[in-house]
Fold each of these.
Amino acid sequence: WSYGGLEIQFKMLQSRPPFDTESKRQEILNRLNQIPGFNIPADAIIRFPKVELSVLKNEESLMQFLEVLDWVVQEIKKS
């Protein structure tokens, strides 16, 4: 978003396999929260939590985030 934030659209994933199950959305949450600067609460898997883009200025954090996105794409392809 133009305000410098990143919105994780868990709510939209609720109706899209394979992330229509709570456990799969929880897995995304767990993977994201391993990235320094991410601190998304457990109940956010039914909302649109936001994270400041500045947490991704560290190259290692950015790479971890991209790995999570790659995992999400692979899970979608398998479903």
Amino acid sequence: ADSLRLYEMFMGPFDQPIPWSSKNIIGAKRFLERVYSLSLKIKNKISNLKTENSKLEKIIHKTIKKITEDIENFHFNTAISSLMILLNEMEKEDSLETKNYELLIKLLSPFAPHMSEEIWQEILGHKTSIHLEKWPVFDEEKIKEKTFKLVIQVDGKTRDFFEAESGISEYEAKDLTLKRANVKKWVGDK
């Protein structure tokens, strides 16, 4: 039932006609099997060990933000796509903290409620339903980019780019830009 439900929501926007094929349900089934198998990577099923993985934390919080917005706007296909990206990142880890796996299952629960409930109670050992849990909230600080790509245009054409710190002032950006050799070539003494 969850595979069919997930497939239906992943097919595309609800307001557009999309051809339905029972052959494509296998992709949704495989995704759910991978989520279930990820439970084998949980470090400690009883307590949450405190280890920092800032890259994974950032992806988790970006995913929480994206899925929350997508559900509110009925963009279920892109929400599921975000879950798939998060799963791929979690699978790259050697081990996984319980709290991070729980977040994945909470985010999955609107799309695959039966499997999420089973994992929540049988694997994670919770006594109450996952559907009574509070929806995860993203941390704005964890999704902020520390740097961004500053694109430099001269006469309306891109001439150079470099990584700059977020929050850089216009004066600092101009100063750094004018010091670059590629920019000097195009600006000259102008």
Amino acid sequence: MFTGIIRELGTVTRNERRNGVVRLTVQAPKTAAKIAPLESIAVNGVCLSAVRVERGAMAFEVIPETLRLTALAGLRPGARVHVEPSLTLLDRIGGQLLLGHIDGVGRLIRRTPRSGELALEIQIAPTLRRFLVPKGPIAVDGVSLTMGERLGRSSFTVHLIPETMRQTTLGDRPVGSTVNLELDYLTKLIWQFTRSRPAR
């Protein structure tokens, strides 16, 4: 489980396909120094198991199902990624509770610089749009954010403060970029519950 508070910006050093599985290696010294093999790490919001940890780097094996549902396949050596180790029972929850199970990918369709902030409009699939709530939480590439009060028919907007732009890569993303999205789990549970109730 994660919070969406990014602890380190890592750098992809390798992205190699072997026997249908992608071996993704990320250099992230601060995180690597604190974990052991097989621990869960969120890489751009995707929960992955570190199969090898050495010399400040972590290696992950990414199966086709994960590649299909996320934007990890597009990462190339040199790319910066958001890294967050999993929670312990003693950690503070400063963002939102996240599982690292990506619901789908979105596409950045508009960047709007404003006084003291950057607004990003992200296109989302109709199957996911129904779960969005104005001012509700959402994780974009593993970053815990709050949606704006106005939702589009197939999009939502998040507003980045300067510190978020300094601590993450979201402020550097060009229009057309794909991002991993994890929606609020509580909203999905309520939606499922109301759909499963028998009609009266």
